[in-house]
Amino acid sequence: MDYNQLSFQLAAVTRHAGQFIRQEAATFNRSHIEMKGVHDLVSYVDKETEKLLVAGLREVLPEAGFITEEGTEGADRAEEFNWIIDPLDGTTNFVHGLPVYCVSVGLVRGQELVAGVVYEVVRDECFRAAKGAGAFCNEVPIHVSDVPDLNSSLIATGFPYTDFGLMDDYLQVLGSFMRRSHGVRRVGSAAADLAYVAAGRFEGFFEFNLNSYDVAAGILLVREAGGRVTEFLQDGDPLFGREVVASNGLVHQEMQDTIREVWK
Q1: So where are the chain's domains?
Q2: 70 is in an annotated binding site
Q3: Is 69 among the annotated ligand-binding positions?
Q4: Cβ(160)–Cβ(208) under 8 Å?
Q5: Which of 63, 68, 155, 161 could form a disulfide with 39 if both were Cys (CB 3.0 to 4.6 A apart)?
Q6: pTM of this prediction?
Q7: Domain 3-141 classification at class level
């Protein structure tokens, strides 16, 4: 299978879904949201976008199944290929009119990522990657930065919206990064954070309590752009875990060491 060609088709489907989000943003009312929890919002835009993606991706690869955030009816997993979908990563940003939110779709064959797209809706930036074919933003090749140390780095992070039991430790880690880097940014979309690492805008990103649909496409983008992605303390694949460290590779050990000082 030509994963690079498939990623072009994925990009077209993802852009189409992004156009729907852009149209709905113009008239969106906060009364249209549902509360999964005080920090966990969902809107009809999330649900309808996911339906659009499922329908479009079925045409691209009919035998593939789905791992989705919103649980679209009939979007079940398959044995070999599965699309991993976050229809609107950054829902809270969207609801509040903060213009950073993405459509994120990755494709796995078994446990291996083979294609991924992150489409940043407001900026109209389409980040695309395929296994062995590199990473692109609006079809311009991208690469992680060449910043060699944490002291010269800009780092991104995010905060959990459930399970706050580890927040004290996390805030200690955050403080260490703030003291040792040029700064820490909290964009509000893990997909955007990872795409920005791939594009060299951030040197690194770390976050815990994530799901596969938050990070699938972004992990592949970083790796295909020359970067590194692992768990917090180990070098395992974080795709189906709960924590992610992504970097340009050069500052990765420093990032893990900084986390390791607190995280057990």
Answers
A1: 3-141, 150-260
A2: no
A3: yes
A4: yes
A5: 161
A6: 0.94
A7: alpha beta
